[in-house]
Structure formats: C-alpha cells, structure tokens
Write a structure and sequence with these properties.
binds uridine-diphosphate-N-acetylglucosamine; binds calcium ion; Spore Coat Polysaccharide Biosynthesis Protein SpsA, Chain A; 36 strands; UDP N-Acetylglucosamine Acyltransferase, domain 1; alpha/beta; 17% helix
Length: 456
C-alpha cells in the first residue's frame, strides 16, 4: 500500500506571540514539525507533503534537508482546503494520512494501528474521549454506534455538545475518494471554512463504513497553541524519556529533572544526578556517575568514570575510570584517556590527554598532546594562540609541569621533564631534566618599606 502523508502547518500560531513560525519552535531540541516528519518516516510513507502558509518560506527553508514536498496555502480557508493543497503532490498514492505540524507527539504505533484497522474501508478516523470536549469537533454516531458525521463545536447543538468523543483531526483515507469528497465540501458553516471533518458525513452518506481508533495517551494528539502547552508537552516527553532510561537500568535521582534533547544511550547501572541536560548524541558506558547540573553534548563517557557537579562536556571523549570536575569544561576535540583526573576550572580543547594524567586545578589546555602519567600543576596554561595562528604543545609521558607554567606554543616538553613553577617556556624542554624559566629569586638585605608622609 502506497501511503502519502499530508501535514497541515499553515496555521498562524498567533498565541505563541512569536516571530518564529509555530512549527519551528523546538520540543526536546527539535522543531515541532521535525517530530511529525519523523513519525511519517517511521510509517514508511512513500511521499510526504507539508502545507505551509504563515511565515512564508521560513518553514520549507528550515527543512531543506527533509524528503518532503511543500504546498503553499496562501489563504487559510480551512482544514479541508489545506488538505486539498497537498493532494497534487500525493498523486499516485493509494491512501492519504492527515497529520498536523503542531501535534508533535503522535506515535507511529498509534498511526499504524489506525491504518491497519481501517485497511478494509475507505476512511479511518482517530478519535478520543474527553471529560471536557469543549472546542473539539464531536463524533456523531447513529443508534447502532456507527460513525455518522463530525460536527464542529461552533456549529453543534446543545445536545451534540454533550458528546464526549471528539475528533483528533487525524484521518486516513483512500486518496481518490478523499479528493472527490473534498471537492464537494462547502464553507456553509459558522466559521466560513472548508472543513476536513465534513468528508466524514459525505463518506457515510455514500455507505462508507468509518473505522475509528484511539491513541494510548491524550498527549499524542495534543496540539501546541501557546507556550504553556508547549512546555506541558515538553515535560510529558521528557518524563517518557526518563521512564525509558529507568526501564533500561539507569538510576535517575529525579526523573522530573533531566532533559534529553537528542539521543542519550546509557549502559547498565549509570547513575544520573539532578538537572542533567543532554544534547545531540551522548553515550555513557556502564557504572558511570554523573553529578548534578552537568551538560553533556555529543560525547562519550567511558566505563566507571565519574563526572562531578557542574561540568560541561561537548564534542569530547572520556576514557574509562576517569574523574572529571567539579566545574570542568571539555570542549570539542578533547580526548581524555583512562583514569585521568580533570579537576575544577580546567578547560580542555582539541587536545589528547593520555591515560592516567592529571590536570587538577585552574588550567587551560588547548591544541596539546599530553602523554600518559603527566601531572599538570595548578594554573598552567598552554599559550596556543599568537593572535593570528594556533600552535601545538607536546608534552611527553611522565612529565611534571609545575604550577602556573605558561607553555608558549609551538613547544615541546620531553618525557619525564620537570618544569619549575611559574616558568614561561617557549623553547623545547629536554626529557628528564629540570627546566626553570623564571626570574631567579633574590633577597635585598637592609631594604626598608616606604613610610607614609605625615599629613600637614
Ligand atoms: C480541528 C478539527 C476538529 C478537531 C480539532 C482537533 C476541522 C474543521 N476541525 O479543529 O474537529 O476536534 O482540529 O484539534 O478540521 N490548518 C491549516 N490551514 C487551514 C486551517 C487549519 O493548515 O486553512 C491547520 C492549522 O495550522 C492547525 C490544524 O490545521 O494545525 C487545525 O486547524 P484549526 O483551525 O486549529 O482547527 P480546530 O478548530 O482546532
Ligand atoms: Ca485548533
């Protein structure tokens, strides 16, 4: 069965009060529309067409990489009119599924169920039952329980408004019949719009049996109209991510205080303290502990390592058994080996730090190759930038860099070398020797402090 998906995204999103079109607002770090496109992809849709309008080309431009056709709905004449705009691009499809750009959390599983259940008929409808159905289109059924039509809240009678089964807006239909029904929908209603929902009445009048399905959770079909609803769906989504992590063997101190904006993979017995933010692709091996308030982005943390509070790791790799933080910052290209200790207020960028080395306090290490078993003293800086170009610092295995050294790159410190504290090193320091590059200490006998002049 060739499935085409029409995604309606021409709405104005007035209540967002934003310069950004609504469907570009992020949920879990990705635009609302991206979630819907992903759901359509997960169904194996043969073709997708998104109907856009408000915000102009901004929306298609933001999804230039998506395998999706675009249809402009210049005038917002209703959901039925919107679907009509998508139909030409879905020519040759057998069925058309209608989704919404501002209904981001719809599950492919639910849609597959709707599609399967309605496979033998020409129209399937996703409905749900709400204790407060205000605002929604109501599902009107006949005495035998068969769907008859949908009546919009604004057009409904008092009696119809008491119906609690509502239209989610999501339908799947035979493409040719849908096109025919839509061509016959009028805008003779309170809102003067061409309602997609009117196709249900047309279908049943032609003897089509309308099959319905319901989603597992109401959040799946919840739309985003304002920022409060966006935040609610964000929390719902994050809660589900947290539950999935816990089921997989990860301890979360508080499942309400984690935000995953991307993909987080944890092996067994990972311990995550509160307020972790993950972005991009993060991989955490078994027995790792992440302290409170950490930010992890596109990184890998090796087996048994510990990341202490308030550390930021981005585009970096941490080997097994390492200890990072508190307050450490690993920037892109940091590759920290097994058993390393990277302490507070240490920043590392584009540098390899081999196994067992320690940089424990207040350092900047940029564009460096640090061997194994190296100790970098507090306050040491690689002076990697001369104002025009970046240069590398190479430190051999087992070197000891005294506190507050300035290593002026390009420079090489030999294996086993010792650099005296406070040295400014701008030439190669030979292996195994002590290198001192600081003003020699002297003491001046008989020196007197100045005395304050008496006030007159
Ligand atoms: C619609 C349904 C209603 C259902 C409800 C569920 C119709 C007529 N009514 O009502 O039965 O209970 O959704 O939330 O379908 N859109 C366009 N172009 C248009 C009009 C709408 O792209 O010309 C898009 C909007 O951006 C929005 C969606 O379609 O994402 C729904 O439109 P909206 O006007 O909000 O429909 P509702 O009144 O909520
Ligand atoms: Ca609406």
């Amino acid at each position: 069965m060739k499935l085409g998906v029409a995604i309606l995204a021409a709405g104005k999103g007035t209540r967002m009060r934003s310069a950004l079109p609504k469907v570009l607002h992020p949920l879990a770090g990705r635009p609302l529309l991206r979630h819907v496109l992903d759901a359509a992809d997960a169904l194996g849709a043969a073709r997708i067409c998104t109907v856009y309008g408000h915000g102009g080309e901004q929306v298609p431009m933001a999804f230039a990489d998506a395998d999706c056709a675009w249809a402009e709905q210049a005038e917002r004449l209703g959901t039925g009119h919107a679907v009509q705009q998508a139909l030409p691009a879905l020519d040759g499809m057998e069925r058309v599924l209608v989704l919404y750009g501002d209904v981001p959390l719809i599950e492919a599983e639910t849609l597959n169920r709707l599609i399967a259940d309605s496979a033998h008929t020409d129209l399937g409808l996703l409905t749900m039952t709400l204790s407060d159905p205000t605002g929604y289109g109501r599902i009107v059924r006949d005495a035998s329980g068969k769907v008859e039509r949908i009546v919009e809240h604004k057009d409904a009678t008092e009696e119809e408004r008491r119906i609690t089964e509502v239209n989610t807006g999501i339908i799947v239909a035979d493409r040719a019949r849908l096109a025919d029904w839509l061509s016959r929908v009028s805008n003779d209603n309170v809102q003067r719009e061409y309602y997609l929902t009117d196709v249900i009445g047309l279908a049943t009048s032609e003897g089509v049996h309308v099959v319905t399905a319901e989603p597992e959770a109401p959040e799946e079909v919840a739309g985003v109209n304002d920022r409060a609803q966006l935040a609610e769906l964000e929390r719902y989504h994050q809660r589900r991510v947290a539950e999935c992590l816990m089921r997989g063997g990860t301890t979360l101190v508080d499942p309400a205080r984690i935000d995953v904006r991307g993909i987080l993979e944890c092996e067994r017995d990972v311990f995550l303290d509160v307020n972790l933010v993950c972005e991009g692709r993060v991989r955490i091996d078994a027995d790792v502990r992440i302290g409170p308030n950490c930010i992890l982005k596109d990184c890998e943390i090796g087996h048994g390592s510990e990341v202490l509070a308030n550390s930021i790791i981005e585009g970096a790799k941490v080997g097994a058994g390492a200890r990072i933080g508190p307050f450490a910052r690993l920037r892109p290209g940091a590759d920290v080996g097994r058993g390393c200790h990277i302490g507070n207020f240490v920043e590392i960028k584009k540098s390899k730090v081999a196994d067992g080395s320690k940089i424990n306090h207040l350092s900047y290490i940029g564009d460096a190759d640090i061997g194994s078993g190296v100790n970098v003293g507090a306050g040491t800086i690689t002076c990697n930038y001369d104002g025009a170009n970046k240069h590398r610092t190479v430190i051999g295995d087992g070197a000891f860099i005294g506190s507050n050294a300035a290593l002026v790159a390009p420079v090489e410190i030999g294996a086993g070398a010792t650099i005296g504290a406070g040295s400014v090193v701008n030439r190669a320091a030979p292996p195994e020797q002590l290198t001192l590059a600081r003003a020699p200490q002297k003491s001046i006998r008989g020196w007197r402090r100045p005395v304050k002049e008496p006030k007159t």
